[in-house]
Design a protein that fits this description.
Number of helices: 13
Radius of gyration: 24 Å
Helix content: 40-55%
Shape: globular
InterPro entries: DUF1403
CATH architecture of the largest domain: Orthogonal Bundle
Protein name: HTH DNA binding domain-containing protein
Strand order of the largest sheet: 1-2
Length: 338
Amino acid sequence: MSDLDDYWFDPLDDADPADPPLPRADRRALLDPPAWRAAEKDCAVDLARAAQAIGRLDGLLAGLDETLRRGLITRLAFSEVVSMLWAAGTPIPQEVLIRDLADAPSSVDLDALALARWAIGRLQGRGRLEALRDFLGLHRAGQGRGDSDLLRPTGADFDSETEGFAAGLAALEGCHAITRAAFGCRLWRLTDLSPDGHQLEAMCWAARAMADSAGPLVMVPMGQAGRRVWTIGGDAEGFLRAWCGAIAAGCEAGFRVIRQLMDWADRARRTTARIKGGNAGLVIDALVAHPVVSAAALEAEAAISRDTAERLLARLQGLGLVREITGGTRFRLWVAAV
């Protein structure tokens, strides 16, 4: 018999190479629900200010027609995802997101871009929060957002993670939606619901959870202020206070973006008042309702010819009202020069 047969580090015959090397503790225990309930009481004023900011933004959207409202929510979603990507350490400019994968520069992280596309859809209201498979887009095996998705639990293991997440949230039953979302964002990071590098999933869940009982506002933006809270730790009270501050700042920024766009539309209509016919007004309406337009999209939406759309876009650009973001390529995209 060889001396190698006696080596103490030989694996046992029944050892499964897929088994983890050591037992893993349940990290959800690191969150203390009573501390969060106490923090909610101590942060009552901050919570009230954050809730008021959400209500103000929601009220502004409620006064708009459905088409315009959808376009503005899309704008808020794009802006929010840009901030989330910065917080996650994978920054992508907003215009790159708008141009989408087909026209993205080779220097852009394509996995991050694919995750950003998913996030934009979720912040527009896609996916049910109460069904995390649906929210994450995991309806079918193999449906994911890159190789990192292979590290996500599947089957019964994923179901166990969702049940644990729901059980953790249940500990804050009766608390304000803002408190539960902040707690849930921290809780999510302590589970295996998302593979490494998919931090946007917890951020998007929290943004949607805070708007769950709101009206037309389907997500609560934090914008650049969110970078201070999305990935930090700290005690419950300090975190919740910072979270509420980010909400107030983000909603106020969103409110300003919408008002600026409305002001741009008024200015654009005054500037183009001498252009004969109503086609210029149709183009302006489309630029308000959509973050980006092409001549082909205008042809379909405004029921005008492609030549007319291109001619009007060129004229609006000459007036300083629109800006091309595709550098004169064959497939050209335009945005309002707000």
